[in-house]
Amino acid sequence: LIDLDELMKKDEPPFTFPKTLEEFEYAFNEYGQLRHIKTGEPFVFNAREDLHRWNQKRYEALGEIITQYVYELLEKKCNMTKEILPVDATEDEPTGFIYLSPDALSNPSKLLVLIQGSGVVRAGQWARRLIINQDLNSGTQIPFIERAMQEGYGVMVLNPNENYLEVEKPTKSPLPSPTETSDEPAEKRERKDDKEGKKKKEFYEKYRNPQRETETERILIRENGSSEEHVLYVWDHFVSKAAAKNVFIMAHSYGGLSFVELMNQRELEVKNKVCAVALTDSAHNIWLQETTKSTQDWMQEHCRNWVSSPEPLDIPLEPMMPDCPRVSAGTERHELTSWMSFDSIFRFFSEFHAKEGEEAEETSNSVTTRSGSHKNKHQDL
C-alpha cells in the first residue's frame, strides 16, 4: 500500500528512474536487441498496470539513456567526432552539435549527409521505438554510416531536433501564511482539513501521473532553433565547404521537409553540389513550401521517395505531386521505411555516382576534342 502521509513528509516525488542501462537491468544482446539482464525478455512498457503516466515517464527516461548510448556508438564504433554548433559559440550560450567522420570535409569524392525526422530522436537515430522494441540496426543510422564508410563516403550526421537548452524557471517564494491558534473556530478547522485532503489527493494524482516537477523555459540555440534552421546552418558552415564533388543526402520524414526548405533557400548551391537525394516517407509538400518549378524539375531527376506501402519494395507508386518519383519501402510502418529501403538506397546512390562519372568523362573528352580541333585550326592559319 502507498503511505501518502509518509511520501508527503519527504517532500519529493516518489518516482525516480535509473540513469544507466545497467541500473534499468537491460542490455543490448549480440543481435542489437534490448533485453532484460535477468529474464532475457524484451522491454515491458506497462511495468505498473494502473500507472500509465508513470510508465510513460519511465519509457522517456530509458529513451534518454538510449540517446547517450547511440552517441557512444557514433564515437567509439564509427570513429566520428562531435562538432559544436554554432561554430562561434560563446561559453555562456546554449549549443548543439553534429557528428562528422574523419574525412567528412576532406573526402574529395563522396559525402553522405543523414537527416532524421522530428521528435525526440537525436543524432544517429531514426526511431527510438525501434531501438527499444526491435533492434539497433532498424532504429539507428549506424548501418548506413558503416556501409557508407565501406563504400568510400565521408559522412555527416545531423542533429535537427537539438534546438534548445531547457532551464528551470526561478521559483516564486510563497507568501507567509498567518499564524493559526489552537483555539481556531470549528469552521476554520474544517476548511483546513479540506485543504489537507485536497493536497493529499493532488499528491496521489501526481504519484499516479508523474509530470515535470518544475516549470521550465527553453532557450533556443542560435541559428539552430528548428530543424529547418539547423539543416540550413549545417549546409552553410559544413556541407558547402566540404571537398566532395558529389554530395548525397538521405532524409527521413520531417527531414525531407527540411531538405526542401534548404532547396528553397540555396537552390543553385544544392543543384551544383548534390548528386542524389533519398527520402523515406518524406513530410515535404511542394505546394505548401512554395517550391519553384525548377526545383520540382530537379527533384524529379535527382530524388526518390521510399514511402510506406503494402506493395513490395521498390515498386513504383502513383505520384501525388510533380516533384520526385515515389516507390514502395516494402513496409506499411512509417518508422521502418529507412531500414527497409537500406540496400535500395545505396544502389540508387551508386547508379547516380556512376552516371556522374560517365558524364564527367564525356565532358573531359569533349573538352579535349574541342581543344585539339582549335589547335589544328590555329596551325592551319
Automatic annotation (TrEMBL):
Task: Output the SUPFAM superfamilies linked to this UniProt entry.
Answer: alpha/beta-Hydrolases
Comp. bias intervals (Basic residues) = 372-381
Q: Segment Disordered: which positions?
A: 167-208, 356-381
Q: What range(s) does the Arb2 domain occupy?
A: 17-313
Looking up InterPro entries in the UniProt record yields: AB_hydrolase_fold, Arb2, Arb2_dom
Annotated GO biological processes are: regulatory ncRNA-mediated heterochromatin formation
This protein is called: ARB2 cotranscriptional regulator A
